[in-house]
Amino acid sequence: MPAIVVAAVVGVLFFLGYRYYSAFLAERIYALDPAFVTPAHRFNDGMDFVPTNKHVVFGHHFTSVAGAAPIVGPAIAVFWGWGPALAWIVLGTIFAAGVHDFGSIAVSLRHGAKNIGTIAHDVISRRARTLFLFIIFFLLTLVNAVFAVVIGNLFVANPGAVIPIVVEIPLAIFIGQYIYRTRSAALVPSIIGVIGLYLLIWVGQQYPVDLAPLAEAIGFDNPRNLWVILLFAYTFVASRLPVWMLLQPRDYINSHQLFIALGVIGLGMLVGWNTIVAPVVNDVPEGSPSIFPFLFITIACGAISGFHSLVSSGTTAKQIDKETDARYVGYMGAVGEGSLATGAVLAATAGVVATTADWQALYPDFATASGGAVGNFVNGVGVFANNLGVPLDLAIIFAAVVVISFAATTMDTGVRLQRYIVQEIAEVAGWHKLARNLTLSGIVAVAIPLAMALIPGGGDAGYTFGVLWRLFGTTNQLTAGLALTVIAVWILRMKRNPLPAVIPLVFLLAMTTWALFSQFWDFVQADAWSERWVLAPLDAIIFVLAIWLIVEAVGALRGGSARAYDEMGSPLDDDTTTTSTR
Question: Which of 34, 65, 98, 225 is 20 to 30 Å from 483 at the Cα level?
Fold first, then answer.
């Protein structure tokens, strides 16, 4: 089947979802009020709380949640066939991710832009807050470690992408300063930034940066580890800067790359008339993970991802100018993710190879599919760009720059969110010095995922991917189900219909608990010590926390609200000062 036909059908479905379903959610479920004074105005501090144009906020939100995950997950999941993968992407985006991402922003706005874990205290119970915060901490630690490793591997494999990515940082700071000091619109400066970024791709091709000699000189066996250290040093500094200085302009520049990348994928498919050579449903070899529940764990970002609720309630809600902007930022952000995931499916099934036999050689088993996912996407997009006349070597660097840009932005936001969560946990534990010291909490937020990314073991894939990655998908989707639980309880207490949140949350919690239970016995029976003594206990702990939180949520639904709310959903005794602003 021609790939462009599939892309067009998916695009129409996404348009209908935004046009009609998001409008229903905005009016009937979340009841957005244009007159509501958002936390960005109430607590404007020029650092984290900054009222911002909705297009700029969309740029931050989308590029923060995108990362490499909507590329990696779908490019792996086509192992089961492109039909099931696309079906979950479309249905998940419209009916799950849209509700989840949009709802996380809406509920956070009504609770002073608190993160979703803290809101669990207001909506469910005090214990729920503590349980949720620990799950979030574990998820963010995995996200930051994983994305650092992904970026490090991409820099090693694509040294021509280094100069464009590195120079983008001072370029974004310059643009941020210009916009902030002149009060100018961000569109034209950000477009100039994108043009500069892409001109630097040619420079990067001429002058590739290889850190292997330096890494060897200072005792690193793998240059990726040196990149990981440099990335965490950068994110520690970036997480301390005001959002308008680097986060917003860089994210806005990168948001343009979404449309450019989707345009290249779409036009490339049209001009080259690439056909999907992978089977609609693949006959996977015996012993492979079953499509239920693991397809719905493998494709997280691009269908629904718990990490999005952390961004929505952690940084995005602090920048929303008008409450009605939440529909565009949240639901359209989910549609953007779904579009990128669709592009990943098509790149991995129609772009990377031209025959079914060649595709089968790339996807002979699940392990090979997992290991080659990013490379398959980059090469597939390179082929689409080559159809438009771009030399293949430049096209591949372009694709790598897109992936690294999204992943680096996610890591920027992830470390900032990790600092918030460290402060929240420290406040609960009574460690006030840690809770109120940005430098100390930032060091903790960076040190733990850095150590995890550098731990040896796990074979060729490394400890993060070879060991802990196996719990990332289930933890991520579990977080999405728990965030939907908080949203559903809040909707019900507002005497509105909770079914738009309840239906996806029941499905997600069923899939994740099924996966956790299934994986637990695999880990217990495994010969490798890392699975038996690391993954099995962690799996069991996460499973217990999930069941405990579900019980707490059911109790909250039956027992009534612990706090009084006004008719629009704001706590009447609202104390919205957050630790991160102290």
Answer: 34
Enclosing H/E stretch for 270: helix 247-272
Per the listing, tokens 């946990």 go with 425
E strand or H helix at 199, and its extent?
A: helix 187-206
Main-chain dihedrals φ then ψ at residue 571, nearest 5 degrees: -60, 135
Cα-Cα-Cα-Cα dihedral sign, residues 32, 34, 37, 39: positive
Helix, coil or strand: residue 498: coil
- Tokens 């050689």: give the residue: 361
* Cβ atoms of residues 480 and 313 within 8 Å: no
**Residues 515 and 294 sit within 8 Å (Cβ to Cβ):** yes
Q: What are phi and psi of 426, to 5 degrees?
A: -65, -35
Question: Would you give the DSSP letter of residue 222?
Answer: -
Report phi then psi at 444, rounded to 5: -60, -45
> At residue 103, does pLDDT exceed 80?
yes
Any idea how long the chain is? 582
CB 30 within 8 A of CB 101: no
Residue (of 48, 57, 65, 59) closest to 410 by Cα position: 65
Mean pLDDT across the chain, nearest whole number? 88
| Cα four-point dihedral sign 411, 231, 424, 451 | positive
Which domains, and CATH codes, for the chain?
Answer: 3-454+467-522+537-581 (1.20.1740.10)
Q: Is the pTM of this model over 0.70?
A: yes
Q: What is the pLDDT of residues 40-95, one digit of tens each?
A: 999 999 888 999 999 999 988 988 887 778 888 999 999 999 999 999 999 999 99
**What tens digit of pLDDT does each residue of 320-362 get?**
999 999 999 999 999 999 999 999 999 999 999 999 999 999 9
Structure letter (DSSP) for residue 78? G
| The two structure tokens encoding residue 567 | 């008719």
Beta-carbon contacts of residue 154 (< 8 Å; ≥ 6 apart): 161, 374, 400, 403, 404, 407
252 vs 15, more confident:
15
What is the SS3 string spanning 378-397?
Answer: HHHHHHHHHHCCCCHHHHHH
